[in-house]
Amino acid sequence: MKKGTRKVLAGILVIGLGVGFLIYRGIATTSAYYLTVAELRGSDPGRKLSDKDFVRVGGEVVAGTIDYNQKDLTLLFSIRDMERPGEMIATRYEGPKPDAFEPDIDVLVEGTYTRGENLFHARTLLVKCPSKYESKQKQP
Questions:
Q1: Residue closest to 132 by CA, chosen among 89, 102, 112
Q2: Cα-flanking dihedrals φ and ψ of residue 97, to 5°?
Q3: Cα–Cα distance measured from residue 51 to residue 111, given in angstroms and rounded to the nearest whole number
Q4: How far is the C-alpha of 121 from the C-alpha of 76, rounded, in Å?
Q5: What sign does the CA torsion over 76, 94, 105, 33 have?
Q6: Where are the beta strands (DSSP E) in 1-140?
Q7: From CA 137, how far away is CA 82, in angstroms rounded?
Q8: CA distance 110 to 84
Q9: Distant-in-sequence, close-in-space partners of 94: CB < 8 Å, separation ≥ 6
């Protein structure tokens, strides 16, 4: 094998390993469990979560729990499990309040959960589109 061919193959190998590492790190840092409020609170024995584990939780905003500080961009609210309405967690989100955010709407939050305080620290808040935006189907 020629000396120039070895350098090209070594360069391709180094680039391939670098790209593979970047893909692996990207997947590892963005992956998150998806849980319901009841699953998160119940701490399923098969799934041990620490206060540092990044999770995604879906639930419904509880009416009367919304407290938004527009100056500090801090939104405090509670979400409840859709199947078990008695299961709730307090949620803190720092950022602008989404326009569609209102009581009794489904949300998806991503962040970390502090079990001792029953407080979810959301980094991301996604509001599911309310049905008022869906087109109405005519009945035949």
A1: 102
A2: -75, 130
A3: 10
A4: 10
A5: negative
A6: 33-36, 55-61, 67-69, 74-80, 88-94, 106-114, 119-127
A7: 26
A8: 20
A9: 72, 73, 74, 75
Residues of the chain with pLDDT under 70: 1, 27-33, 43-52, 130-140
Residues sharing a CB contact under 8 Å with residue 115, sequence separation 6 or more, in sequence order = 43, 51
Q: Give the residue from 59, 63, 70 showing the smallest Cα distance to 120.
A: 59
Number of H helices, E strands in the chain: 2, 7
**DSSP-assigned letters across all residues of 58-97:** EEEEPTT--EEETTTTEEEEEEE-SS-TT-EEEEEEESPP
Tell me: the pLDDT tens digits for 4-37?
788 888 889 999 999 988 887 776 656 556 788 8
pLDDT for residue 80: 92
